[in-house]
Amino acid sequence: MINEGNNIYSVFDEILSKEEKEKMLKQKAKVLWLTGLSGSGKTTIAKVLERDLHLQGFLTQLLDGDNIRAGINNNLGFSEEDRTENIRRIAEVSKLFINCGVITINCFVSPTEQIRNQAKAIIGEENFIEIFINTPLEVCEARDTKGLYAKARKGEVNNFTGISAPFEDPQTPSIKVETENQTVEESANEVLVHILPLIKV
Predict the structure, then answer these.
(1) Whether CATH 3.40.190.10 fits 16-199
(2) What is the rounded (10 degree) CA torsion for 85, 114, 48, 186?
(3) Quick one: the chain helix, strand, coil %, rounded to 5?
(4) Of 31, 23, 8, which is closest to residue 129 (Cα–Cα)?
(5) What's the pLDDT tens digit per position in 82-113?
């Protein structure tokens, strides 16, 4: 396929298919998109989930907001435009991983329906599993392990989701994890039980 405007020559139709790689890895590649407020437990749950999947023989890659912003997206801020571009790039990288047959675990606030739908459109609805880590704002703020909520309350951090920028609860997530009254292991296991039938060959 040739994009005449940019002289881009795509070879996606000439390389090994996702299905061929999934067959070799004996798994179905999906993007597990964990969304929720800062401090909700997304990354903590994802790390336990990744370990559990690894022990069961699945090949995974975990993408985390801080790591991505320290690397591939280190030129982006937190304006609405930059948040949108942040998620667009993450979705494109995730698509590359699932094309390799890899189960990709993403931990990103991704605060609006529009921004999550953008990611789903890029990745493909059939490969996108939206997981809402539903932790009340007051619980996230009480944890405040990074001190960000305190800074946001003082006006030292702009466009901070939950304080000076909105968070829209997902309307139809594949799974909603209510973390307030359960352990990290229980939350991760809740996700694991849901996704295993979707990733097993």
Answers:
(1) no
(2) 160
(3) 45, 15, 40
(4) 31
(5) 889 999 999 999 999 999 999 999 999 999 99
The 3-class SS string of 82-142 reads HHHHHHHHHHHHHHHHHHCCCEEEEECCCCCHHHHHHHHHHHCHHHEEEEEEECCHHHHHH
Number of Cβ within a 10 Å radius of residue 86: 22
- Considering the candidates 38, 40, 94, 110, report the single residue annotated as catalytic: 110
Using DSSP's 3-state secondary structure scheme, residue 171 falls into coil
Clarify whether 110 is annotated catalytic: yes
Residue at token pair 């619980």? 139
pLDDT in tens, 25-82: 999 999 999 999 999 999 999 999 999 999 999 999 999 988 898 888 889 888 888 8
For residue 148, the SS3 value is helix
| DSSP, res 165 | B
Task: Report yes or no on whether pTM surpasses 0.85.
Answer: yes
Percent of the chain surpassing pLDDT 70: 94
Q: Tokens for 120?
A: 């789903």
Residue ranges of domains in the chain: 16-199
